[in-house]
Every structure is written in C-alpha cells, then in structure tokens.
Amino acid sequence: MSLDAVFDSEEPAFVPYLAAGDPSYEASLEYVEALERGGADVIELGLPFSEPIAEGSTIQSAIVRALKAGMTPERYFEFVEEVDVDVPIVCMTYYNLIFQYGGSEGGPRKFVERAADVGIEGFVVVDLPAEEADPLREACDEFGLDLIFIVAPTTTDDRLESMRERVSGYVYVQARTGVTGAREDVSDQTAQTLDRISDWDVPKAVGFGIKTGEHAERIVRAGADGVIVGSALVDIVAEGHEGDEPVAETAEKLEAKARELKTGALRGVGAAVESE
Amino acid sequence: MSLDAVFDSEEPAFVPYLAAGDPSYEASLEYVEALERGGADVIELGLPFSEPIAEGSTIQSAIVRALKAGMTPERYFEFVEEVDVDVPIVCMTYYNLIFQYGGSEGGPRKFVERAADVGIEGFVVVDLPAEEADPLREACDEFGLDLIFIVAPTTTDDRLESMRERVSGYVYVQARTGVTGAREDVSDQTAQTLDRISDWDVPKAVGFGIKTGEHAERIVRAGADGVIVGSALVDIVAEGHEGDEPVAETAEKLEAKARELKTGALRGVGAAVESE
Amino acid sequence: MSTDEPADGSFGQYGGQYVPEVLMPAIEELEDAYRRYVLDNEDGFMDEFRERLADFGGRPIPLQRADRLSERYDTEVYLKREDLLHGGAHKLNNALGQVLLAKYMGKERIIAETGAGQHGTATAMAAAHLDMPCEIYMGETDIARQRPNVFRMRINGAEVNPVTVGRGTLKEAISETMRDWATNVEDTHYVIGSIVGPHPFPSMVRDFQSVISEEAREQIREKAGRLPDSVVACAGGGSNTMGAFAHFVSDTDVDLLAVEAGGSSLTVDEAEGVAPNSASLSTGNEGVLHGARTKLLQDSDGQIMESHSVSAGLDYSGVGPELAHLVDEGRVTPVNVGDDAALEAFHRLSQDEGIIPALETAHAFGYLEEHPEEVGDLTIVNVSGRGDKDLETVIEETAKRDLDVAPDMSVFEQVGAGRLGSRGDRE
Amino acid sequence: MSTDEPADGSFGQYGGQYVPEVLMPAIEELEDAYRRYVLDNEDGFMDEFRERLADFGGRPIPLQRADRLSERYDTEVYLKREDLLHGGAHKLNNALGQVLLAKYMGKERIIAETGAGQHGTATAMAAAHLDMPCEIYMGETDIARQRPNVFRMRINGAEVNPVTVGRGTLKEAISETMRDWATNVEDTHYVIGSIVGPHPFPSMVRDFQSVISEEAREQIREKAGRLPDSVVACAGGGSNTMGAFAHFVSDTDVDLLAVEAGGSSLTVDEAEGVAPNSASLSTGNEGVLHGARTKLLQDSDGQIMESHSVSAGLDYSGVGPELAHLVDEGRVTPVNVGDDAALEAFHRLSQDEGIIPALETAHAFGYLEEHPEEVGDLTIVNVSGRGDKDLETVIEETAKRDLDVAPDMSVFEQVGAGRLGSRGDRE
Ligand SMILES: Cc1ncc(COP(=O)(O)O)c(C=O)c1O
Ligand SMILES: Cc1ncc(COP(=O)(O)O)c(C=O)c1O
Questions:
Q1: Three-class SS string for C74-104?
Q2: Subunit notes for this chain (chains C, D) (predicted)?
Q3: What is the pTM for the complete model shown?
Q4: Inter-axis angle of helices D321-328 and D201-209, to 10 degrees?
Q5: Mapping DSSP to helix (H, G, I), strand (E, B) and coil, where does residue D273 land?
C-alpha cells in the first residue's frame, strides 16, 4: 500500500515508530508485526545511526541497542524484506547513511534504489532540511518514493515554502519545542502549526511526546490526519529487554499500546465531529 | 681562661663544636665535658637557631634535635653556667637570637651582657658579616668579649680589611668552598688563605671538613694556630642518639675522637718544625 | 573576515546545514546575527569583541622567535603564543565571540559541549565574564578523566551536565547539546567549540579565530621582514588551524600545514568501529556529521567511527568543512603525527624553549621534528594552548613508552624514602 | 628602576646582607652585576630583558576594567592581569630577569628554592628558555602536595632536589639553597623568588617586578584619565606587591594596600612555635632572616615561627625589607584577610569575572569585599597569578567550610551513579 492510499481513507492514521533491530533482529521483527496487529497504518522504521543528534534519550538508547545487536543498512533492508506487515514502511534515519551507501560516487541514489527494491515507501531524514534535500528528492522521484519533512512550531514561513515544494507522502508536524516536563497543552501549539499548513495538499501527521490514547485523541481533534508515536512504544521494548521478558509478552504489550493509541486517534475524529 | 690565653701557648688549639642541648640538655652536658677531657682548648658551643642556613645537614640535624629537646637562649645560658669545663666557651649562633634577646629595644647589648655573666668568652655569628657587626662589636667591647669572624677562601681583600678592623679572639678560617665529595687537598687552599692574613695579630683557627687526626695534622702543618672540628663530632652524637647508646658510651667516643684530633694537631707542629 | 564566500556556508561541496528542522530557526537567526554583528559590525559588536579580547583575553599575543628550535632545525621558527591567551588556549577567541554575540542577540542562556574540557572552560570563563548562565555537556568518561577542567567550569559558575549515553565522550556530548538546543532554541545559544557544525558556525568560528593569523601576519613582517614559507598548526576540528591560516590563504606562497593526530596507527578496525587516529583530513572520506558535510572517520556503512589520540582535544571523528575543502583544493596540506612523536615533541619544547605545550599543540612540533625540510626557511608554528591540563596524561603516557627525551619522575619516590645528602657542609 | 636608594641596600633600618661569609663574594659580584646590567643597562641587558619579557612572557599585560566588581563595590575596579604572564603568575618577571643576568655574569648553573612551586616553575621555564641547567630545592612536604608544579619543573628539564630536613617546606628549602650556593658560588646563581634575602635581591627583584606598575600607571591614565586612588596587592614575600606599588610610591595620593594572609587567626601559639597566619607586616616584629633585617613572625626568643595560610605562596614567616620600611613610614598600609574570606573571594572572582585567581591573589579581592570603602573611587588590584595550581586545595578547603559563594562539586558523584534524564525528546 502506498502512503497516499493510507491517508486517502477517512480514518486518522496511526504511525508508530520503532528502531529496527532493537533489541535484536528477531525480536524486532515480532515487535513491528505486533504494531500492525495493534492497528498501525504506517510504520516509521528507524535505521540506526551512530550519532542520533535529534533523539531523546529513550530512542537514543534504542539505537545504541540496535547497533550493538548488529544492525546495519544492509541488515535493515533484509529486515524490511522479511518483516511480515502489509502497511507501508517509512525509513527514518540520518543522512550520512543514505549518502554513504552511494559508495565512492556518493549521493543518495543507490540507497533509494535499494529501498525501493525492498518495498520501502518513503523517508524521514532527521538531519536533512529541505534546502539540502534536492539530490534525495530527485532519487525519490526516480524510484517513486515519498520524502517526508518535519515541520516544527518554529519553522519560518520561508522555510515552509521550501518544504512544501519538496514534500510528499505526508508532513511530519512536530507538536512542540518545549522542554520535557514543562509542556503546555500540546494541542494548542499543534493546532497553530496545522493551521499554517492547512492548505498543503499532503496529509499532516503529528508527533512528539504523544504517549497515550488520550493524547492521540486530542491531537486528532486538533486537526491531524495522523498520529506519530515513538518513545511510548520504545519504552515498552526497553522495559521488556531490561526485564528479560519473553519476546511474545513484550509484543503483546506493544500491540495493546498500539491499540490504545489507534483507538484514541479514532475517538479524536468522533469527538471532532461531535464538538462541531 | 680567655681566648688570648689559650692561643698564647705554643701548642695549636683544638676547637671542637657541639650544639648545646643535642640530643638533650643532660647528655649534652656530658658530651661537652668529654670534649674537654679529650683535649679541647676552646669549645664552640652552638646556640641552636631555627633557620641554620649555613650548616650542612649533619649540624642542621643536631640543631633540630636540640630545639626539639627544648633548647632556648635562656636554657643555653644556664647550660653554660652548669657545664663543668675550664676551657673558654665561644657561643656560635645566628644573629636573630642575639638581636631578639634585646626585647623591644632590640640590638645585641642585653644578649652580650648575659653571655658575659655566664662566662662566655666570645661569639661566632654565622650570618653576621663584619659590615653589619658594629653594634655587636661595641657590646662585646663593653663587656670584654671577643668577636670572631669567618674568613673564606673567596673573601676579597676589601672585606678582609673590614674584618681585620673588628675581629678579636681568633679568626675562623674556612678551609674551602668546594662541593662535598669533590675536595682537593685542603691544605693548599688553607695555606693560601692563611698567607693572606699572616700579618693579622689574631690567631688563625681553621675549620670546615676536618674529620681526622690526619686532617688536623695537615691543617696545622699549613700554618694554622688552631683546628675547628664540628661535623665529625656531631656525627658521633647522632649515631649515639640513633643507636640508643648509653650517654657515657657516646661521651667516651667523643673523648676519644677529640683526643685523636688534638693529637693530630700536635703532630702537625712537630711535622711543621721537622719539615722546616 | 571573509565576506566573499557563498552565503549558504558551503565550502566547495562541504559545509551546509544538516540539522533537525527544529533547529533551523535558531540557525537562521544566528546566520542573520553573524551577518549583522560579525560581518557588518552592527552596534559596534566587533569593536567590543576586539576590546574584550585585548583586555580580558590578553591580545595581542606575541609572536616569539624560538631560538633553540631555529638552531635545531636550521630554519627560522616563530611561535604564535596562543597558550598565553586567558584560559590557556586559543579557545577563548571563539568562546568570547560567541557568548558576546549571544548577548547581542538577546539570548539568556549559553550551552556548549566539551570533550577535553578546553572549550568548556573557555566558554564558562566567557559566560562568567559576560554574566550569562552557562551549562556545559560533557561525557561521563571525560568528566572522570578531566577533573581539573570540570573543577574550572564549576568554579566559573557553569553547570556541568554529565552525558551518560554511549561511550560518554565528545561525540555524545555534541549530540546531547544539540538536543538541548533543539528544545530551548528560543532563549539559548549553543557555543560550538570548533569550525564544525552547521553554517554559520564554521565561518563564524573561523572569523573569531582569524585574529591569530591577522596578528601573526603583521608580526612576522615586522620581525622577519617577510611572510613565512609555511604556517604549521595542529588540527582537531580545526579552529586553531583555520585561525592560524585564514589571513595567509591568499598568500599562495605560504604553505599551510594542518597536522592531525596520527594516534597509534593510520589503519582502522572496521569491525570494532574504531580508528586508532583522528586523521580525518588525511584518511577520512566525505559524509555528514553534526550538521555539516565534511571529511569523516566512518565505516563503509556511514557509521561514525570512534577516533583516538593521546591528545583529547584532537580526538574527534570529523573536521571543519572549510579545511576539507582547502585540502581538496590543494591549498592546505594535511599531514599527521603519531602519539609517540607528539609526546616527544611535548618534552622537547618544554625542555628547549621553556614552553609546556598542550598535547594537541605538540603534534605541530612533532611534524617539525619529523619533517624540518618541509617548512622552508621561515615558519610559524601555532602554539594553540598550554599543557598544564595534560600533565597527568603526559606522565602516564610517557611512563608507558621508551622516549628519547622524557624526564624521569623519580623525585616522588625519593621523597620520604630516606634522607638525601646535602651538598654543602660547613664544618 | 630606583637609582636613588642607598648603595648598601638598606631600607631605613631594614635590609642589609646577613649572610655567611662564604656567600659574600657572590653577593658582591651580584651587586656589581646589578649595578652594571640592571641599573646601567650595560651591554643592553635591560633591552634584552624587556624584549624577552614581551615575546616570551607576553608583556605588556592588560589592565582590565572589572565590570561586575565595579558594580558590586560601586567603585571603579581595574585588574592588572599578571595571571596572563607566561607560567601563570608575576613570578616570571623576576625569574627571567635573574636567569638572564646570570647568563650575562657568565654563570653556568641556576638554583632556586620553591615552596608552592610557582617560583620554581617560573625559574625552570626561564632556565629552559635561556638554556641554563637548573636545580630547584623543594621541601619534601611541598613536593608531595604540589605535584603538578613538580611535574612542570621536571618537564621543563629542571632537577628537583627534595629537602627532607625539618618540616620540609619553604623555609628549609631556602636554607638548603643557600647552602648549595655557599658551596658552588663560583659558577652558580641563586634566583631568589621574592623581594627578600640579602641586598641586592630585594632591590633587584623589585626592579624586575616593577614593570607591573610601570605599565599599570600608564594604562590607568590612558583608560581612566587619572591615577588610581589605591593599588591593592597581596603580600607574601612581597614581590608582586612592590612590583605593583613601585611606580606609584612617589604618587603620594595613591594609597598602597598590602594584603597579607590572616590565615585562621592573628593570634600565635608561642609554645608550638606556630603563627596561624602569615601577617608579618601587620603582626611581626623586627629581626634577621634569610639574609635581611625585616619584619618577622618569631617567638620572643627570636626563633622563627611556622607561618600558615591556605595559600602556599603567602605562607612565609618574613617579608621584603622594603615593604617593612614603607609600612613604618606610613606609605604602605598593611592589612590582612583570613583563609575563609580569601576562599570566598576566589569563588566570587571566578564566578563574576571569569578569572580564576591564585589563592594568593584572592586575598587582595577578599580585602576589596571586606573594605570596599577603603579603596577610593578608582582602584587597581594586582591579579598576581592564576588559580589552576590551586584547584585541588580550593575544592578541599571549600568542602570543609560553609561559604556563601561556593559551587558544589556533586557532578562527580552523579557520574556513573545512573542515568540523567535528557532534556529533549523528539517523539
Ligand atoms: C590547545 C588546543 N589545541 C587544539 C585543539 C583542537 O581544536 P581545533 O582543531 O579546533 O583547534 C584543542 C581542543 O581542545 C586544544 O585545546
Ligand atoms: C600568584 C602569586 N601571588 C603572590 C605570591 C606571593 O609572593 P610575593 O608576595 O613575592 O608576590 C605568590 C608566591 O608564590 C604567587 O604564586
């Protein structure tokens, strides 16, 4: 299924994130599949990079675990081929891995080609602003993949413009910039950002700090087309790993959490309708 | 007996040094008395000062021991009163103790007065060059004490002159300046110095590094009127102290060493006469 | 100041702004401030900067002829004495510039990363001087092994935030500082410590550091009556390097030699992800790290490798994009010097010239020893910092090796181990 | 340079040459050399000295306005930044002068005493710079507690000779160095570290250090348009003190404040022979020590008392005879500051101005805090040195006390004691 197809549906999309290979290749396969069972509409599958400058400590640790367990770009592609899910997979990573895959010639083309090969539908490249993205955009166009950009509450109008020109699949709306622990009501900032890009013709998925069905509901109510959730799921993987839980048990918890979030998101539509 | 009287005799004078109160007041009394038994003609009795900048490590340690055992200027004067020797005692010390004894008025007069009282015959003040010595010289004149200066091989002619003007009792000829362990034949340097002051009308006693009867002999042969010995005797005190020797045993060793040195000195005259 | 370089901060194919979206506004704000205050001296920013560098920092810094080295190498060796700058290294030129800029920008909080602690201490000093709250991120491994610098930061009133992720060293501290910046962009300025990171940092840090070569160029003409044949500087991120090179770049007869840490070997261990050196200019290849495209130590997948050097300040897997470009252009020659040679050079400079250099700096002198014929008849070596911070490391690393010029430290064993004979004996 | 003082080196009743006869020739030779080279600039000695002080030492040293302190004390506070001199303290002014003089005199060997190690490191640096073999005497107690400075001396190629007599501190080291000099007068020069010792040392060291006030006087007139109301400097032996005062002595409107170490108390323990302070100017009385008549800490017998200060460099029982004289004359005001106040001042200057001072120097700032009303509307404080050497002591001594301004050092406990929350979280 393409990303377009997902967001074409009336339902808000639930977009969970996990780092591929955390805490091991095998377990990770189970976990990603559990997400789909729990209701995932798209999966943002992290390809771990050694310098994850944009991650909080939760995801950072997930990346460290995955790298330690042997995850590499090549293994990642195998993972995507092997994992048994039908929903689209978006590769979330840092630019150096994409760039370096090109070998001595450099550039993103080879990486995108291989990603297309294994059925990846699009990319979120955390450290690649629109201004630096043209080579990747071209390769994505060549192989029919989407390139998702992140919009932050602080993104200027000028920069919105350059993203709008290049974005496809969906836009990732970062819910807030605030410091952890000092968060104001997430939906206000989100609503403002959504408002600024309301006339864009791509779906808007919101992420950053969403942990519960309740959050998801509010985000959707604020107008999001999708809800992105990472840390809350990675926490479950981490706890399972640290507590030496059987993989199946952790997978079940993930599935349950996914279901809670998905349900919350669905409630958001209802509520939005109701409150109108 | 006055210093003049000692040096008036034909015999070379043997002038041993010990630090008063090393390693204890009582033992020190015994040791000084042993020196006289061994043949001392004058005793240079050290009054310990906390900063003995001109002493080698041997005498420095003696001073540390004496201070630790409670030696003070006042105790020193009592010591001189109490010690049972007939030969003249010369007080060897540093200027600050003399200066400070003057109390708030300052100056050396009170110290000299008290020294005269207890029967001290003269002073060697290690850190008081002739140029700074006038106040002390005056006080010594007032109370009839001698003031001894040290002449070094390197002393310039100008400075010899200012010492000559102020010296009395005897002149202390420092045998050499060289570094320990690299000593040339001591008698050469000594002979040269003695030659430079041969027309002075005070006796010349030579010290610095004299350890054996053999050394003493050579010094006298070089023309000295007296032989000053410190470290070689202090070494015996130190060994006795460290070895927990009975005081009487150490005193005997001191006496024997004194006798060796005195005999050596006497041989020097004979030899000097013979070689002429 | 170079105002003739591309406004997007690219140096050939290097440079750029590879940062998370959330940082872009801060980066853009900084670009704007850089242009206005630094390039155009708005509100007299540069005047105040220069004045504070003089009064607080101690500039101008002398260019000293090194008599003994000149004789040893039969070439005129001049030393640019950045070790005399307040704080003991060139780092303050940049830290003071950025903290002052943050103040002009109305920021209220300073953050910085530090590895060896040199940039952290410089930033803490500048922040104290300018009355700005300051937090320094530092890996826990580094905190444990760089105690004196941690003390100095704390004593200057800075918070030191331990970074406990990964190996707990510089790379992790940079990531953590970026993360802080991403969440506090509005009131916070991130003082990057070298000519690395996204535009405008590489240009801006170079501009603040270029006072080194601005002075040196004038001083050498006055002292030697001509330009040097070469300028030699060690290169970690490359800020002292570009600082020492900047005003000589257009003097094409002046060779510019960037001395990287050769560590224990130039061969990498891909499996372990470790390069036993920090020679990214000499051996690295193109990639994207910490916001910029540049030369990197990375494995064939693009994962960043741990670097290694006996000198903590050179121990970094990347390098400034401008240097990468100048190397590709042939304008800068990348060379490298291993741990042993750097330690020997450390001792040699200390003994021969009475200057204890930073271990980073010692690499530049190691090059002089190994290739005196490459520097021409007149060379300037940048003494990027002093070595007080390195004493423990040097003693330890020296003891492990059999070096030609090492002092022995047995004096500590003598102490308390019985009496030493005094040299003089009065009687 | 003062050429109008008595040729015998007396300052009122103070000064003189109370040394063993064997040293007198060396002293006379030195007097002659002092007159010729220093006072009369024979063979261009002073020109070479000035040039080396500039190029090697980093002079001129800035006079910096201290913005925060000026505000705090509502008075203009200027800092003379001797902490920026090579080696980190004013000590090099003197060490370089004397080692160079020794060279002009044809000496082949340098010896010096050191307590905290500051003078020893300065001498070792100067000797390395001028290619002179150098031996430093240091008490074994000091060696053990001043490791970094011992490292620095050894690294600069100097021998460090442990002195194991007595308490093994500065007094013993001075005595031992005198002893060495007495046995090696012909080829050896003894570099005394302050304005103490027999003439010509007090005059000569002051002359070498007076570059401080020579510069400062000119700088303050340029910056403030007038002379200061006061100059404040800490005083151990008093070399930075007289260096900072010298060119202001004849400006009788300028108050000269010598800040001694008040230690833990001004009351002495005669029985133990210990003064819990180093306030010889304020509380000492006249006596003779280490070659000069001056004010001393001594008991009523004239035995020298152990001094005490949290700052090793002030921990000396005597003081320069010239200062003793100027105090008696009423020209210099002796004041003192205790250990606690000095530590607080250390932290305050570090936090407020971004300058970590030597603990010695901190005493001068302690005085400013305690008596801001005494310094007038415009004061110069001499920052005699930097505090890197004092970090361990400061941490330790701070931990023992309940100070107002101390940073906490718990960061070391946090490290390894589990994970700290990161501040940002992307998803
Ligand atoms: C003294 C010194 N020199 C050089 C460096 C390397 O940095 P850069 O290459 O940016 O000059 C450092 C870094 O800490 C340093 O402290
Ligand atoms: C920084 C500093 N200031 C002051 C002093 C005290 O010496 P003086 O009184 O001779 O200046 C010392 C001595 O070590 C010192 O290191």
A1: CCEEEEECHHHCCCCECHHHHHHHHHHHHHH
A2: Tetramer of two alpha and two beta chains.
A3: 0.93
A4: 80
A5: coil
- CB distance D218 to D224 below 8 Å: no
Kindly give, in sequence order, each residue whose CB lies less than 8 Å from that of residue C106, ignoring residues fewer than 6 positions away: none
The alpha-carbon gap from C301 to the nearest alpha carbon of chain A, in Å, equals 6
HSE-CB for B68 with a 13 A CA cutoff: 10
Contact D292, D198 (CB under 8 A): yes
Domains by residue range for chain C, with CATH: 10-56+90-205 (3.40.50.1100)
In the prediction, which pLDDT does C270 show? 80
Q: What is the mean predicted confidence (pLDDT) over A82-94?
A: 97
Confidence bin at C415 (pLDDT 50/70/90): low
Mean pLDDT over the full length of chain D: 92
Question: Is residue D146 within 6 Å of ligand 2 at its C-beta?
Answer: no
d(Cα D378, Cα D253) in Å, to the nearest integer? 12
Q: Are D422 and C181 in contact, with CB atoms under 8 Å apart?
A: no
Here the tokens at position C409 are: 């430290």
Query: Measuring CA to CA, which residue among D297, D237, D309, D293 is closest to residue D273?
Result: D297
CB-based contact (8 Å) between B29 and chain D?
Answer: no
- List Cα–Cα distances, D403 to B1, D342, D346, in angstroms: 66, 11, 11
Indicate yes or no: CB of B96 within 8 angstroms of CB of D304.
yes
pLDDT score, position A275: 42
Q: So what's the pLDDT on residue D73?
A: 98
Subunit contact D20:B50, Cβ cutoff 8 A: no
C258 pairs with which residues across the strands?
Answer: C233, C334
Q: Which residues of C touch D424 (CB under 8 A)?
A: 179-180, 182-183
Strand order of the β-sheet with D159-163 is: D159-163, D134-139, D109-114, D188-190
Report whether pLDDT(A40) > 60: yes
* Cβ neighbourhood burial of D18 (10 Å; 0-12, 13-18, 19+): buried
Q: How many CB atoms lie within 10 A of CB D320?
A: 33
CA distance C78 to A17: 57
**Dist. CA B16–CA B33, nearest whole Å:** 11
Which secondary structure element, helix H or strand E, spans residue D11, and what is its range? strand D10-11
The predicted complex's ipTM stands at: 0.92
Dist CA D343 CA D395 (whole Å): 10
Q: Are chains B and C in contact at 3+ CB pairs closer than 8 Å?
A: yes
DSSP string, D106-173: T--EEEEEESSSHHHHHHHHHHHHTT--EEEEEEHHHHHH-HHHHHHHHHTT-EEEEE-STT-SHHHH
* D91 belongs to the catalytic site: yes
- Right CATH for B3-275 from 2.40.50.140, 3.40.50.300, 3.20.20.70, 1.10.3720.10: 3.20.20.70
Residue of B55, B64, B174, B234 for testing the chain C interface, max C β-carbons within 10 Å: B55
pLDDT of residue A185: 57
Q: Of the residues A33, A36, A55, A121, which is catalytic? A: A55
Residue C103: active-site member: no
Closest CA to D180 of D172, A246, B99: D172
Domain extent listing, chain A: 3-275
More confident residue, B269 or B147: B147
SS3 C334: strand
Q: At B261, is the secondary structure helix, strand, or coil? A: helix
Q: How confident is the model over C96-111, as a mean pLDDT?
A: 98
Q: Which residue of B has its CA nearest to C424?
A: B56
Phi/psi of residue D167, nearest 5 degrees: -80, -10
C-alpha distances in Å from residue D35, one per residue of C338, D8, D30, D31, D97: 50, 12, 8, 6, 14
pLDDT at B183 over 60: no
A140-166 pLDDT, tens digit per residue, is 999 999 999 999 888 889 899 999 999
